[in-house]
Design goal:
Layout (H helix, E strand, L loop, with lengths): L9 H23 L7 E4 L4 H6 L6 H8 L4 E2 L6 E9 L8 E10 L2 E7 L14 E4 L3
Antiparallel strand pairs: 1-3, 2-3, 3-4, 4-5, 5-6
Length: 136
């Protein structure tokens, strides 16, 4: 005797559906962990070595050769150049790195440098920001 499809046990189809949904959910969760997250870098990467090459009294053109063009050109104060850099690693638990440097000019010559970029090879000091000025 042949049993029609509807007369078969509904328990079997319920178990099959449950196994299908469980495997679908577990594969989706596994795939969600495999999402690629790229490293994000924004701004001009400026090292402590580059900042140490910049000296007071340099012209704007000389500063551009060392650091590149500033990220922000302030339309209200053309004598201030701002350099910012941030690095956010994609998948690692490493913290976001943020650095900034502000350069002030008097005329065409560098007058003041404010920077929070520290030399990692140098011993740490109490003040982690560097400020230089010509005393004008």
């Amino acid at each position: 005797m042949i049993v029609p499809a509807r007369a078969r046990s509904p328990r079997f189809s319920r178990i099959a559906r449950l196994l299908f949904h469980a495997s679908l959910i577990s594969s989706l969760l596994a795939a969600a962990g495999c999402v690629y997250r790229p490293d994000v870098q924004q701004g001009n990467e400026i090292t402590a070595e580059m900042i140490s090459q910049v000296e007071l009294g340099m012209t704007r053109r000389e500063v551009i050769r060392i650091l590149g063009y500033p990220l922000v050109n302030d339309p209200f104060n053309s004598n201030r150049w701002d350099y910012f850099y941030s690095y956010k690693p994609g998948r690692s638990k490493q913290a976001v790195t943020r650095q900034s440097a502000k350069l002030y000019f008097e005329g065409d010559y560098l007058n003041n440098i404010e920077s929070d970029i520290v030399d990692e090879s140098a011993p740490e000091s109490e003040d982690d920001s560097t400020t230089a000025s010509t005393g004008s």
